[in-house]
Write a structure and sequence with these properties.
Elements lengths: L8 H7 L3 E2 L8 E5 L2 E5 L3 E2 L9 E2 L5 E7 L4 E5 L8 E2 L4 E2 L12 H6 L4 H7 L1 E2 L2 E2 H8 L16 H15 L3 H16 L4 E6 L2 E15 L7 E9 L4 H10 L5 H12 E4 L2 H9 L12 H7 L5 H8 L3 H6 L10
Antiparallel strand pairs: 1-4, 2-3, 5-6, 6-7, 6-12, 8-9, 10-11, 12-13, 13-14, 14-15
């Protein structure tokens, strides 16, 4: 496995024999990888146990398995990379700078996690002081719903989620990558509403809004899409939650399940996570690290319960108040 959780080149060689040469309308698309022909959409593949998704070809291209409207499966290229500019305002539809990590946080660039001392010493991001970001990121400023809750601050949110990701045993690029894969799949406009990711069926839908959203960090990141993501819990997972958290009433348990298995995000989310370790605060647009890890199969429900114990529900709901996160 590489650091993004993608399978190695050797595994992709084994997968090639499973490709099924369907003949849909349109040109055939193939990816040449170290002499191996890896078929991608519009070719389809036969389902088989253990078929890897996502995986990386020997040439470094990343692919995910998507389920088409007729139930057939096909691989789509979703490589996370720096590409042509993406701008809603200008109508530019490139990938954007997907691998960029903020130069002002060297520890984040080197390790995938923040050093809190660097966060404290920065006093701001991309030239905006923290106090200004606090103002424009709250509800009814740059965004009606806000990038964080009224009682939260940008420094508290960055620190709180950095600690949360560390407790998960993950790093920010590992959590940005599934969202980039999803967004890169949506950009291609393939006829799919579900992708297979680490063995999970991840459903998604999205549509562009009437206007576009500017970034709170004075960078080029913009967004216009309203994207819903879900991964249904299976009966065993629901049974585990009921047994592991008996103190939760039916309403709270239903809320726990929803927070674990649903996301409402925009295309800005993976850029923010990769670049700044920012998942937004506790608003309707939050890209919660726990939910990302569960939906995309990075962590099982048992692992989440072991990591957070009785505090799992609180870690999904409690705000990062300015007073609650110590410097």
């Amino acid at each position: 496995m590489n650091r993004f959780g993608l399978v190695t080149a050797a595994a992709s060689i084994l997968v090639c024999s499973a490709f099924h040469p369907a003949t849909p309308e349109g040109p055939e698309v193939e990816t040449a990888a170290a002499g191996i022909q890896v078929a991608v959409y519009p070719r389809t593949v036969e389902p088989q146990p253990g078929m890897p998704s996502p995986f990386r070809t020997p040439a470094g291209e990343e692919l995910v398995l998507m389920e088409l409207a007729d139930g057939k499966l096909a691989y789509a290229p979703v490589t996370v990379e720096n590409g042509e500019p993406y701008s809603c305002a200008c109508g530019w539809d490139g990938k954007g700078m997907q691998l960029r990590v903020s130069e002002q946080f060297p520890t984040l660039r080197a390790t995938g996690l923040h050093d809190e001392g660097e966060l404290d010493n920065a006093n701001g991001i991309t030239g905006y002081p923290y106090s200004m970001i606090d103002c424009i990121a709250r509800p009814k400023a740059f965004s009606y719903n806000g990038f964080m809750a009224e009682d939260e601050s940008i420094l508290a949110v960055l620190k709180g989620d950095n600690r949360l990701v560390r407790a998960l045993g993950l790093k920010h690029p590992q959590l940005a990558t599934p969202l980039f894969h999803l967004w890169n799949l949506m950009r291609l406009k393939f006829p799919a509403a579900c992708m297979i990711y680490n063995g999970q069926r991840v459903r998604f839908s999205g549509e562009p809004t009437k206007s576009y959203q500017e970034s709170i960090f004075r960078d080029e990141v913009q967004g216009t899409w309203d994207i819903s993501v879900r991964r249904d819990l299976n009966p065993q997972e629901r049974s585990f939650l009921a047994g592991r958290f008996p103190a939760l009433d039916d309403i709270a348990r239903a809320d726990l399940e929803a927070r674990l298995s649903r996301l409402r995000i925009g295309e800005m989310s993976p850029f923010y996570i990769m670049r700044y370790g920012f998942y937004e605060g506790h608003t309707m647009w939050r890209s919660d690290p726990i939910a990302i890890s569960f939906i995309f199969g990075l962590r099982r429900i048992e692992e989440l319960a072991n990591a957070f114990g009785e505090d799992l529900y609180k870690r999904l709901t409690n705000h990062y108040s300015r007073e609650g996160i110590a410097k």
